[in-house]
Design goal:
The complex is a heterodimer of chains A (about 190) and B (about 70). Chain A is mostly helical. Helices cover about 70% and strands about 0% of the residues of chain A. Chain A contains nine helices and two strands, in the order H-H-H-H-E-E-H-H-H-H-H. In chain A, a hairpin with a 4-residue loop joins strand 1 and strand 2. Chain B has about 70 residues and is an all-alpha fold. Classes of the chains: A mainly alpha (about 190), B mainly alpha (about 70).
Chain lengths: ~190, ~70
């Protein structure tokens, strides 16, 4: 299988249709990224826009990277931000914690509905919600999109060391809050 | 999140979403192919123009810069 970088470079140099294979490889992952943060309906609405934007921006892709996902998530993030900025009241709130957060407006209500109300996951999510947005964004790119910290850094356009330290802080906070939760339950 | 595997598992569970319906993927692919096709058509249209330019006699005319010969 040819790396994404090769296909994208080819698509930028006379073979635009080579990009369709890159889109086919990652369309479900991009949809999941969007759906986790904005719900399935918005994901359905925005998926095509992300692919079109990526095609238009492919000349700027560094063909040295084999996997285009971090770059595509970065574009999806921009499309989501723009969507929230222009859709007025459609900005998902992060209830009771930090208020409207267009930079990382995860659909928490939908997530809560899916979780077992008696499970530890239910206790974890308020802690995730309470994280600073920049830390939460790295954490979720790693946990949900299965990116490495370096790949998350590429998606966010920050230095790898910044992403690693944000991830470290997020994990430390979650570890502490989960431990506190366990103490309360067992005590 | 190898140093906290349970939290990692819990987060993954929280992030599970069903795959998109086929019509969603079809719509997105259609949008993409429309811009790809537009670019391919543009290439086809520029091709004959480039060929016509290449067929011109190479006598040096039109190659001056700023009117200097």
């Amino acid at each position: 299988m040819e790396p994404d970088g090769v296909l994208i470079e080819r698509s930028a140099h006379g073979k635009p249709d080579a990009f369709a294979e890159v889109a086919r490889r990652h369309e479900v992952a991009i949809h999941a990224y969007l759906a986790r943060r904005a719900g399935r309906q918005t994901a359905a609405d925005l998926l095509g826009e992300v692919l079109v934007r990526a095609f238009a921006a492919r000349g700027g892709f560094d063909a040295g990277y084999e996997d285009a996902r971090p770059w595509l998530y970065g574009i999806a993030r921009n499309v989501l931000r723009e969507h929230w900025r222009t859709s007025g009241g459609d900005v998902p709130a992060v209830p009771g914690v930090i208020g409207p957060d267009p930079g990382d407006g995860v659909d928490w209500d939908s997530i809560d509905d899916r979780l077992d109300s008696a499970g530890r996951a239910k206790a974890l999510m308020p802690a995730v919600r309470a994280l600073p947005p920049a830390e939460r964004e790295v954490l979720l790119l790693v946990a949900w999109e299965q990116l490495t910290p370096a790949e998350a850094a590429r998606a966010l356009g920050v230095p790898p060391g910044t992403a690693r330290s944000r991830l470290h802080r997020a994990r430390a906070t979650l570890r502490r809050l989960l431990s506190e939760h366990d103490s309360r339950v067992s005590g | 999140m190898s140093d906290m595997p349970e939290a990692d598992e819990l987060l993954r569970e929280a992030g599970e979403v069903p795959p998109p319906e086929p019509r969603v993927l079809d719509g997105a692919r259609e949008a993409l192919w429309s811009v790809i096709a537009g670019e391919m058509l543009g290439q086809d249209n520029r091709g004959p123009a480039r060929r016509r330019q290449a067929d011109r006699p190479q006598d040096g005319r039109g190659k001056s810069v700023g009117g200097r010969e």
